[in-house]
Amino acid sequence: MVIDEDVLRHRWSEGQPCHGLWSLLPGVVTAEVLAGTGPDFVVVDLQHGAVTEAELPGIAAAVRAAGSVPLVRTRSPLFADVGRPLDLGAGGVIVPNVRDADHAREVVAATRYAPAGGRSIGRLSGGADQPLVVAMVETRTALDDLDAILAVEGLDGIYVGPGDLSLSLGLSGAERADDLRTVLSSIVARAVSAGVPVGVHAYDGDAAARHAAEGATIVTVAVDSVSLREVMTHHLDVARGRKETRDA
Fold it and tell me: Boundaries of each HpcH/HpaI aldolase/citrate lyase domain copy (predicted)?
């Protein structure tokens, strides 16, 4: 089934988990391979990934051709960085470093044409008139203002960045993992209670399934660079006799 922005928005809001992949690696071929596995959405990471803006039209087209929604984590929450991917084919944005509810309203306005917002007309390739907009919760200030963020009109969801949030809260390190999990579960519960779609960044299917079981509907299943490293390491270990094969 081909999924577009409206379908994804509806499923999120109805509490149906939608499963996506996160991409740090550049190139249209990467996007084709990822989208070809059947995710509901593919997130292209401009903040920490190797993809350039010039690649976005081709990447977005490849993801759409496979029946998935191309989303982009923007480089920053700045007005130009939010709008640029939308002009280059993205069906929505996941915006990092959102400070509080007022900041979230600015982010939403950057994705909407006047009179609803300040987005400039000039879309070059694909995209959507009403793109999905998701604010990342990854700072203490955002967590402190979470209830107000959840009430921001036009926001399609929130997405928790556990790594940066753990640093902001002083909960980094294995010895604080349980405390961090408690915080993450609380955020998910508060979003679900408010009727706002929520996701928590995950690197594997087990973690993704745990978040979904708690109520997350924006479900990141895997990150391409991490999965590639794990798979290649496994096969090298098997070939070198460091690990038994499954058939052994």
Answer: 20-229
- In the chain, where are the structural domains located? 5-239
If you compute the radius of gyration of the chain from its CA atoms, what whole number of angstroms results? 18
The residue annotated as part of the active site, out of 48, 103, 234, 235, is 48
Task: Examine the residue annotation and report whether 48 is marked as an active-site residue of this protein.
Answer: yes
- pTM here? 0.94
- For residue range 3-58, list pLDDT tens digits in order: 999 999 999 999 999 999 999 999 999 999 999 999 999 999 999 999 999 999 99
Going 35 to 127 to 50 to 41, the CA torsion angle's sign is negative
Cβ atoms of 110 and 117 within 8 Å: the answer is: yes
